[in-house]
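Notes from hallway chat w/ T.B., transcribed later so I don't forget. T.B. wanted the structure written out for a chain they're using in a teaching module, and asked if we could keep both sequence and structure tokens in one place. Agreed to drop them here.
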Amino acid sequence: MRCSSCIVIPARLASTRLPRKLLLCETGKTVLQHTYESARRATKPLSLCVAADHEEIAAAVRAFGGEVRMTNPAAATGTDRVAEVARDLPDMDVIVNVQGDEPEVAGEAIDLAVQLLDDNSSAVMATLAAPLRSRERLEDPACVKVVFDQQGRALYFSRSPIPRARDWDDALLTADPPNFYQHIGLYAYRRTFLLQLAEMPRVPLERVENLEQLRVLAAGYTILIGVVPRPTIGIDTPEDYRAFVRRWSGC
């Protein structure tokens, strides 16, 4: 049976490396509007809204005709913000968390995450991964890696290279099937589990890696991994944004 699902985009005005990045608009649209319009291309979710922490964000969403819900400015994480909105959506089975700084997110990727939960009633959460072919990215702690079993169930997420090759060979990067996968931070949650997750305490593994999804694995829950051909490119730095503007303008 198909799950009823919706997309929630958590949007925070403040950001550390790129101040007010969601409101940057050199393309004529804000980063947040690009993300909203890209997410709207998904066909499975029934609705889409932004979970805002500040009236300036909310006003920007209303300006382009989007739906917005105000959330507690003191919410610790985007997941907490999404859970706050989910409490008021009792008719939804699945909530999809799409980061606001992902202007090029693919609708097909969102649909895949939802489909994984449609197909596996025992899983409480689904996310995505893409083959990792760069050793620089493999060694970069900012690039989160994931390993999963033959049924597509996550075994572990890490900022370290996983699996760690005992004897390095560049051919490891070009193997088919791939040896390494980059995690993509798009999540589909069963609503009931999302509300539970927001109340669960952090665990040691999560604290060490600073990866919230490890809280789920440590508690013994199943996270499904859907594989897409390539990762989406988020906006974290001024260089990221300039590169996005160039891609968008075709320069």
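Follow-up for T.B.: The chain has one domain: 5-249. Might be a good example for the class.
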